[in-house]
UniProtKB/TrEMBL annotation, chains A, B:
InterPro entries: Kynureninase, PyrdxlP-dep_Trfase, PyrdxlP-dep_Trfase_major, PyrdxlP-dep_Trfase_small. This is Kynureninase. It comes from Natronospirillum operosum. The keyword Hydrolase applies. Pathway: Cofactor biosynthesis; NAD(+) biosynthesis; quinolinate from L-kynurenine: step 2/3; Amino-acid degradation; L-kynurenine degradation; L-alanine and anthranilate from L-kynurenine: step 1/1. The gene is kynU. It catalyses: L-kynurenine + H2O = anthranilate + L-alanine + H(+); 3-hydroxy-L-kynurenine + H2O = 3-hydroxyanthranilate + L-alanine + H(+). HAMAP family: Kynureninase.
């Protein structure tokens, strides 16, 4: 199978002719092939939402769908809805909707649990499939829960895997015959830097290691081709670019060639070959279903399903092109509007190397972000000094970017961020 | 601390003067101290719902609350709602509402994940707290996912625990100095048999073993006194008697004396001492919060919180008395109405030994249950031959029981269950 690098063939229009005025931005929105998508979302008034990489906006259809699930399927159908409303197949049904976004077959993806729990299951399964290999390689500084899960595995699993943490650029050389698994987050949660999935996967597999990707910041944000790259496993999040709602269930992908040998450690009735036989001994289901454990979170799963419907007619190459244009427009506008404000780009300047987000370092980042939020521009802050802006291409437009940077410029010009109200730190996700 | 057996001091009114006619049943409902609770629930028309032990009815307040969470907190508040709507503290807040129902302190209970995932975490932590002890003792034939989880642990954990399965009556004698953990489901999911929590816990602890209870079929159905009994750990379900909705999050309880030594293996950012510091190395939070892993399922958690509000003013001794009366009325009515229909009681006859459910064996159990459901009496079937009826005391009344048994009698008299439509088996939860 040829390894198709997924981000190469759409270079041309990304950096040319980006809007620099309000009029140009509006004109660009008017001819945006994704412009009708925005109407499918509820965007709060007077808000420019650049945090869809943390929690996606609510699709308008979701409110009605959840009323139906709660007030009809639960309230009226009660226990019968496991069959009559097909709750029982939600993990498979939602998984099949995620599959085309990540280059997977419909029966290779299940929606279940949280990203962290799924990572525990799959990373453990990977180590158990690689007898005689003990190392798990990952990088420092990426989304911390991924590392915590691997640290917990190293602390608890019978195989006693050894966790090796190396900077991204040293990983390829470090993969050896003792490496069971390489685990990386595809898009860096802080900087938005994109790993070369095809190249790294190829290096891992050439050495006999398995390759597991966390797609939390890439699924729904750019085209991903797991099978095309020959990857082995992946996990990802439902509440960011997939617009599944707060704490939506996550997903797990395993390449079909591994399904038969898979043995994840958290055995539960939803993963049993015959869940309703209620037999005493665990017999894993065939195929991927053994990855399931407990009862499906029906409310969250139904919201996620509704969010995914909005991707049904989206050309991911078009989405990627718009995403690259939005991020590039944002970088150029900030540097043009606030050249001496002390911002230092924390994201790759090359749009081919970036996910759908832009981050800047600034020593006053926390207060600046609070001032922005106060003015209706919602991004987020990541310690110690990063302000982060996510451009969800389904509902963020070129005018949004223009206006957001104008407000940022205003805040910097007049030192609004110096207001003591903005300097008090709270927990922020 | 004295060990208070929780089901002893309410014997008197349980078996006397139960209604045997429709008029008596209605009169009993009229003077039921819990009668106003029923009005807080949506009960579908023409339905007698005796399956609240599988999926509780929808509290009327939940529909409105979920609209608020979805259409305001998510749609309008977006990422800000983690602070502004206090999503961040849902595990603790909902846990504190569960605490009084199970004899726990408010800071000893967290709502998170599924029952199965929580059992994996706590059983693993228990084994890791007991160096030199390798056995986990449990019983056969109880809710299977509990056994599957323990089997998965035995298959994966560094300590290589050995799972020993013994009939309930042999467990006390088998607990020895090699026993790390005794894990039992308090109320048997099929028969409704209630374990003597105080006695078994005492036996386990006398031998230095830890005691972990699954309260899925008891939390909200009868008074539980974990601390009074000196238990160590517990898990339980949010979607049965707690009325949290389909696939609601579950809960985990750990006695405070163990919090400091706890080390569950699925390390995630919500369990980190400083989740938003995003540091590379896992440092468990103080107290019970280290049991958390991933992002809270906000929709399910909010529904569960609303369901729990209905317990705020409930006297659990009163609830237990009504539950025992309902189950006793049901048993006596079935035996009076259908003496020769072939039903064999599968539940304990002594109401002190029963949870809030009644089961009968019948070789045609599957078809009989389908016929009942067709007539609006919803219970469930458990292989190979058990029909099961749950009496959720907050919304099931004495008239319901009377009418359900009349319909059952009719079905048996006229062999409605012989209808070929009722003989086709589907997946049913």
């Amino acid at each position: 199978m040829p390894c198709k690098p997924e981000q190469k063939n759409i270079k041309e229009p990304t950096v040319t002719a980006l809007p620099t005025t309000l009029e140009e931005a509006r004109a660009r929105d008017a001819r945006d092939p994704l412009r009708t998508s925005r109407d499918q979302f509820h965007i709060p008034a007077d808000t420019i939402y650049l945090d869809g990489n943390s929690l996606g906006c609510m699709p308008k259809a979701t409110a009605a769908r959840l009323r139906q699930v709660v007030e009809q399927e639960w309230a009226e159908g009660l226990i019968r809805s496991w069959n009559d409303a097909d709750w029982i197949n939600l993990p498979q049904r939602v998984g099949a909707r995620i599959a085309p976004l990540i280059g997977a077959e419909p029966d290779e993806v299940l929606m279940t649990d949280s990203t962290s729990i799924n990572l525990y299951k799959l990373a453990a399964a990977a180590v158990r499939m690689q007898p005689g290999r003990r190392r798990i390689i990952t990088e420092p500084g990426n989304f911390p829960t991924d590392r915590y899960i691997l640290q917990g595995l190293a602390d608890s699993l019978q195989e006693q895997p050894e966790l090796v943490t190396l900077p991204a650029e040293q990983i390829a050389d470090a993969i050896d015959e003792d490496t069971a698994l390489v685990m990386l987050t595809h898009v860096h949660y802080k900087s938005g830097r994109l790993h070369d999935m095809a190249a790294i996967t190829q290096q891992a597999r050439a050495c006999g290691a398995l390759m597991l990707w966390d797609l939390s910041h890439s699924a729904g944000a750019l085209p991903v081709d797991l099978n095309g790259c020959g990857a082995d496993m992946a996990v990802g999040c439902g509440y960011k670019y997939l617009n599944g709602g707060p704490g939506a269930p996550a997903f797990a992908w395993v390449a079909k060639r591994h399904h038969e040998r898979l043995n994840q450690p958290i055995w539960g009735w939803f993963g049993h070959a015959s869940p309703f036989a209620m037999s005493d001994d665990y017999v894993p289901a065939e195929g991927l279903r053994q990855v399931l454990t407990g009862t499906t979170a029906v409310l969250g799963a139904s919201a996620l399903e509704t969010g995914l419907v909005l991707f049904a007619d989206i050309d991911m190459a078009v989405l990627r092109r718009k995403s690259q244009q939005l991020t590039q427009q944002f970088i150029e506008a900030v540097e043009r509007r606030c050249p001496k404000a002390g911002f230092e780009l924390a994201s790759p300047r090359d749009p081919e190397m970036r996910g759908s987000q832009v981050s800047f370092h600034h020593p006053e980042g926390y207060a600046i972000m609070q001032a922005l939020i106060d003015r209706g521009v919602i991004g987020d802050f990541r310690a110690p000094d990063i302000i982060r802006f996510g451009m969800a291409p389904l509902y963020v437009g070129f005018e949004d970017i223009h206006n957001a940077v104008e407000i940022l410029g205003d805040i910097m010009d007049y030192r609004h961020w110096d207001d003591p109200r903005y300097r008090q730190r709270n927990a922020v996700t």
